[in-house]
């Protein structure tokens, strides 16, 4: 098992490089591709000849010895049809590798940003705890000064305890997200203290447009089309097998009694009277029809999933922008004003708690919107494959 450690933090590029280089599922797909290359090589091999010897009579004077070479000859284009079928399977293995690579990238990206969001929630909960501690200290001072009731201090203590509890939950979620990232990397022993990413930098929805063209080039569509081609090649192979093969025989017969050698030339051909490969042809033809039907179903499913993921991405980006540009600045300003006003005796402690809770909820919503955007982007990557780079 490959083991990796990032003491200074894990970047997305490093995570993707590690997963694409060492993920066991991807490595298995590559090995299957190499195996298909061997199958293609074997499909083009000629049939081996057969050497036989026959001795008649045990007495040397009247013994007859026959040596002959039998060479099967494939007719009907069986060899070329077999090679075409193997090449189609090899092409499918190539597409499986590409699809699996896109899936690994998608899983790593989703898990990576999941860790980033959990990491940011830990920071926010710690900040909330710090603010709750400051509010409790301020309440204690006002109680000692006789300006407010001791109930105010009790409320502040409850708010501080809730903040500490929220921090413990955030820590637990961060550890769970880290475990999911290690699983996505394909290395449960990978070690990292944190991930290095700007969580405020969101993906762009425009890179997935136009959706119809991206869908045509997606790994799923390409693989389904290749499956149809493979089934067509198998159908051609079964049709070619209707024609029986020819066996050419060459040899010599030594007759001791006559004292001379006799050449042997023969041809044998199976008569297709009972078995004309009808069942195999019907099976291959129906499986070809099935592949076409599955292609239509897959296309409709991929299109629906891609439209849904793109809609989720657009919605999450809109929500994140609104929270970042309007809600968060107002919530921070309201919290700062309420805290200052409480210290001056102009606001009650409940006003501070409400402003604090509003700020924390807004920060949490912003993180949730960012997480949804990155998850939708990762889902589109899995469905559509790598986005086409855009020129600046």
Automatic annotation (TrEMBL):
Gene3D superfamilies attached to this UniProt entry: Outer membrane efflux proteins (OEP)
Any Pfam family: OEP
Organism superkingdom: Bacteria
Membrane-crossing residue ranges in chain numbering: none
InterPro entries noted in UniProt: MdtP/NodT-like, OMP_efflux
GO molecular function: efflux transmembrane transporter activity
Protein family membership: Belongs to the outer membrane factor (OMF) (TC 1.B.17) family.
UniProt protein name: TolC family protein
Annotated source species: Aquabacterium soli
């Amino acid at each position: 098992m490959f083991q990796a450690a990032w003491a200074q933090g894990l970047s997305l590029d490093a995570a993707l490089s590690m997963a694409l280089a060492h993920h066991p599922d991807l490595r298995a797909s590559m090995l299957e591709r190499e195996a298909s290359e061997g199958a293609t090589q074997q499909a083009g091999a000629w049939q081996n000849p057969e050497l036989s010897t026959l001795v008649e009579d045990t007495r040397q004077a009247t013994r007859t010895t026959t040596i002959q070479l039998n060479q099967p000859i494939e007719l009907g284009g069986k060899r070329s049809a077999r090679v075409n079928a193997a090449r189609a399977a090899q092409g499918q293995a190539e597409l499986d590798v590409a699809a699996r690579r896109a899936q690994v990238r998608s899983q790593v990206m989703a898990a990576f940003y999941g860790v980033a969001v959990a990491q940011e929630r830990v920071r926010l909960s710690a900040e909330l705890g710090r603010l709750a501690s400051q509010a409790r200290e301020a309440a204690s001072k006002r109680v000692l000064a006789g300006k407010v009731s001791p109930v105010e201090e009790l409320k502040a203590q409850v708010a501080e305890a809730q903040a500490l509890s929220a921090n413990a939950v955030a820590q637990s979620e961060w550890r769970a997200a880290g475990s999911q990232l290690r699983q996505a990397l394909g290395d449960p022993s990978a070690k990292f203290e944190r991930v290095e990413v700007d969580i405020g930098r969101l993906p762009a929805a425009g890179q997935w447009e136009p959706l119809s063209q991206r869908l045509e080039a997606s790994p799923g569509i390409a693989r389904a089309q290749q499956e149809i081609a493979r089934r067509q090649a198998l159908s051609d192979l079964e049709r070619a097998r209707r024609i029986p093969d020819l066996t050419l025989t060459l040899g010599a017969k030594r007759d001791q009694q006559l004292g001379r050698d006799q050449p042997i030339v023969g041809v044998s051909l199976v008569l297709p009277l009972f078995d004309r490969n009808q069942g195999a042809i019907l099976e291959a033809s129906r499986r070809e029809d099935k592949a076409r039907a599955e292609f239509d179903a897959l296309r409709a499913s991929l299109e629906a999933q891609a439209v849904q993921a793109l809609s989720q991405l657009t919605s999450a980006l809109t929500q994140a922008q609104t929270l970042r540009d309007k809600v968060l600045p107002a919530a921070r300003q309201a919290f700062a004003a309420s805290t200052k006003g409480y210290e001056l005796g102009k606001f009650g402690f409940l006003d501070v708690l409400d402003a604090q809770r509003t700020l924390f909820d807004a920060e949490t919503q912003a993180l949730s919107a960012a997480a949804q955007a990155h998850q939708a982007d990762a889902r589109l990557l899995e469905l559509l494959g790598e986005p086409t780079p855009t020129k600046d």
